[in-house]
Design brief:
alpha/beta; seven-stranded mixed sheet
Length: about 200
């Protein structure tokens, strides 16, 4: 089933539950390494959830831990943290031609940035989404206090206005908070619509 505004909240929440189920992994190693591992687990969960919705021979889902596209593309990650696309083929220029896959259409482009120290990284990742041609773009950032989150959404409004397609923004708790239930809440997802950020969490 294709992912759209009607089921993106369900997909993100499903990926979130899967990701935090691993929050005790590596508890005895240094925090920085644990945070990176959990951040990669979050993207891995997102990629798998998208893949479950695009399970046919005409679609490909790229992300760092997915090796399924190595045969045709020679890489795991393609430009974005998660990329969902349709593929087609063209013939190679060999004596005995073979089909070579290429990306024919992009359905989702996803960027996830957990750094809370500088919103500049969010701006850079949002700019990547502007540069992409996907029908849907999703930016994910670490949860802050309410005023800071409002400020980040306002800061990203000018960028969202430059994006083609449907644009979504999601706040999730930083991996450093995954072991403390006090700060651990579900993702907050917003849609850019008619020039404003509208919450999708209330249905």
């Amino acid at each position: 089933m294709p992912v759209n505004r009607n089921n993106i909240v369900t997909l993100v929440n499903s990926a979130w539950r899967d990701a935090i189920s691993a929050r005790d992994d590596g508890v005895n190693t240094d925090d920085g390494k644990v945070h990176r591992t959990l951040s990669e687990r979050w993207v891995d969960s997102l990629g798998k959830c998208f893949q479950e919705n695009y399970e046919n021979e005409d679609h490909r889902v790229f992300w760092k831990r997915n090796e399924c596209n190595q045969e045709h593309f020679g890489l795991n990650e393609f430009l974005f943290d998660v990329l969902v696309c349709s593929v087609s083929t063209t013939l190679s220029r060999q004596r005995s031609p073979i089909d070579l896959e290429f990306i024919a259409k992009c359905h989702w482009q996803v960027e996830s940035e957990f750094d809370k120290g500088n919103s500049r990284k969010i701006i850079v990742d949002m700019s990547k989404l502007v540069a992409g041609s996907a029908e849907n773009k999703l930016m994910i950032a670490s949860r802050r206090d309410e005023d800071t989150e409002k400020g980040i959404l306002e800061q990203c409004s000018a960028i969202a206005a430059c994006c083609s397609g449907n644009v979504y923004f999601c706040f999730v708790s930083h991996p450093e908070d995954w072991r403390t239930n006090e700060k651990l809440g579900p993702p907050d997802l917003y849609e850019w619509a008619a020039g404003v950020w509208a919450s999708l969490n209330s249905g």
